[in-house]
User: Fold this.
Amino acid sequence: MRNSPEIDHLVYAVPDLARGIDAMERALGVRPAPGGQHPGWGTANALLALGPGVYLEIIGPDPDQPTPLRPRPFGIDRLTRERLAGWAVKASDLDARIRASAARGYHPGRVLPGSRRRTDGTLLSWRLALPEDLQLPFDGLIPFLIDWQTSAGHPAFAAPRGCTLAELRAEHPEPEQPEALLDALRIDLAIARGPEARLIAVIESPAGRVELA
Assistant:
């Protein structure tokens, strides 16, 4: 039996963060606010709230960090255009969720600590489960799990408001394949048959109803 996922955030990967922020403002009518750097990952982000406890993360290479020793997450180093590259599900019971999923045939990945410092100086920290290569299965259709622990505030509450996530769905040439991993995670996501793997978010915004993919 699957459950409706408690979506934490959507990951929108861009090859150039400054240009990605400008493009998102044009699309949605709200300007994403700088989030912070991810030390050692070679990335930085900007954020938009999509409702209570949900946000959109625009993530791209950080020009103020050296090139990391391993590839940046979410396929950022291979990007030729902006794309909705993944999503995260809240998991305050992270270790138990990993064990349960692994017992059903899918291991979500090793637990990685993460942190970034907000522009106001507040340090946010979290734990997440990502595959070893930091890339999400089926081009982002399978979510990663995240536990914010005792961070000083979820990013959604400090991010610019005005947008709402109305729908999240996906497409894949063989939906049964990603659905098997979602079954192991006990997560529900509508996957239609389509020509390629695609994650699609519908957002209500000041600019109207916008589809990100």
Summary: The chain has four helices and twelve strands.
